[in-house]
Amino acid sequence: MFRFVLIRFGRAFVTIIAVMTFAFVVLRLSGDPAAVIMGPDAPIEAVNAFRAAWGLDQPVWVQYVAYIQAIFTGDFGVSMRGQSPALDLVVERIPATLELTLPALLLQLAIGIPAGIYAALHRDSAIDRGVILGAVMGFTIPSFVMGLVLVLVFAVTLGWLPSGGDATWQHAILPVIAMSVGGIGILARFSRSAMIEVMGQPYIRTASAKGVTWGSVVRGHALPNAAVPIVTIVGFMVGSLLAGAVVVETIFSWPGIGRLLIVSVTNRDLAVVQCILLLVAAVMVVSNLVVDLLYGWLDPRLRGHAAH
After folding, report:
1. Which of 1, 169, 249, 282 has a 20 to 30 Å separation from 12 between CA atoms?
2. Smallest Cα–Cα separation from 131: which of 188, 57, 67?
3. Cα–Cα distance list, 83 to 56, 250, 273 (Å)
4. Residue 230: which domain range?
5. Non-local CB neighbours of 242 within 8 Å, separated by 6+ positions
6. Cα(270)–Cα(47) distance, rounded to whole angstroms?
7. Is pTM beyond 0.90 here?
8. In this predicted model, what pLDDT tens digit does every residue of 51-80 receive, in sequence order?
9. pLDDT digits 0-9 by tens, 222-235
């Protein structure tokens, strides 16, 4: 078990380093921050002075080494726009993003998994076909399209809910729904497939043949075994919610990390963008690491595979 955990932590560390490197290189290739921040009419002397002040006149490899060294000492840089620590700007936006992502994740779990399991237990029925249709529609519609449709219907046409902002809890309803629909569809489809596969296993038929009640078979044998693959997809849902927050927060003018990322990319605020990307990568890696550990705990056979 120790080797299994060690391998997973090693992979997580390498993944975070790879994301940091990729973000650093892409941001340097996307344009000159000095030209964007100083403006097209700024004197060349002022632009050059800005580059020198922020170390942008150094070779890229020198900037990269300095960036990595700073990260490992807890220094995430300073915003070129606001002159504030990048980490402080990001941290103050986290609560707003959690106000959307946590309810969205709970909604996905509360609706998607039970719907998929219920459909599997009533396979080929009208309910099953309805769940499949709803699931396909849910995960094929992009979150930005869903957000725009929700605004058009419930904010513009019906006037029931606000179209943007974060003044009251009602402002969170539409963005939470927009972030939840796709995940509900994915979880419903995946839970249905996992449950159908488990229900076709010999040990299910054996338990039924021994006189075990149908409810006990489902609760005691089918659900625990179907939970193993479902745990995996739930881990990916955390990362997809953070990715979806970038679009949804922009559509609904929600002051979270996603909206800050869009503004920072537009302004070429390198430190803030790098800090956000590192945070998102860390959350995704940690969630997948937790899933791997749970997977190994639920299915001990995987520990042996991981060691090879």
Report:
1. 249
2. 188
3. 16, 24, 14
4. 95-255
5. 97, 101, 257, 258, 280, 283, 284
6. 16
7. no
8. 888 888 888 888 888 888 888 888 888 888
9. 787 777 778 778 87
